[in-house]
Amino acid sequence: MNYFIKIFVFLFLFGSLLSCEYETIKPLKVEVESASFATDVYPLFSTCSTCHNGSHIFDSRDLTKAYTSLTLPANGLVVPPLTENNLMKMISDKHQGTANYSATDIAKIEKWIADGYQNN
Ligand code: HEC
């Protein structure tokens, strides 16, 4: 009986090792079909207005202020020429609450920018 348990445990452990060896990890690629500023992007800024309350270039106090501050060409946050502290750079640096963004959240922001940062 004991012998069978040992064989079973051995096969189980050996089997797990083998399965690990042949597994390949696929990179996580999230694609979104469309992104709206009001329903997809702006809700991701719900925690930002603690600081971005009018005293910074990016102002997230309401939908209009957030849209205007992001897309004003002189601010360089999403409209080129981008500044060093542009939105995607801040996100990739995991600035404040952006550290919690999922791959889908980031894909939505990227899609909104790629589609011409519409007020949609
Ligand atoms: C605890 C305060 C705080 C919070 C919360 C915060 N930020 Fe910031 N943010 C700053 C400061 C301070 C700067 C100035 C640049 C720096 O020092 O990093 C800044 C700069 C920025 C900039 C560059 C433009 C500018 O206004 O200076 C962007 C874009 C930005 N933050 C986005 C966000 C987003 C998006 C969120 C919410 C997910 C957020 N921040 C939350 C403090 C904060």
Main beta sheet, described? none
Tell me the overall shape: elongated
Spans where pLDDT lies below 50 across 5 or more residues: none
Bound molecules: heme C
Level of helix content? Answer: 40-55%
Quaternary structure annotation: single chain
Instruction: Kindly report the average pLDDT value.
Output: 89
Give the number of domains. Answer: 1
Number of strands: 0
Give the SSE string: HHHHH
Q: Based on helices, strands and strand pairing, what is the structural class? A: mainly alpha
State the end-to-end distance: 69 Å
Global Rg: 23 Å
Identify the notable features of this structure and list them briefly.
120 residues; mainly alpha; binds heme C
Short description:
By secondary structure, this protein is mainly α.
Descriptive account of the structure:
The chain is mainly alpha-helical and 120 residues long. It has one domain (30-114). Helix content is 44%, strand content 0%. The chain contains five helices and no strands. Residues 45, 47-48, 50-52, 56-58, 77, 85, 87, 90, 95-98 line the site of heme C. Heme C is lined by residues 45, 47-48, 50-52, 56-58, 77, 85, 87, 90, 95-98.
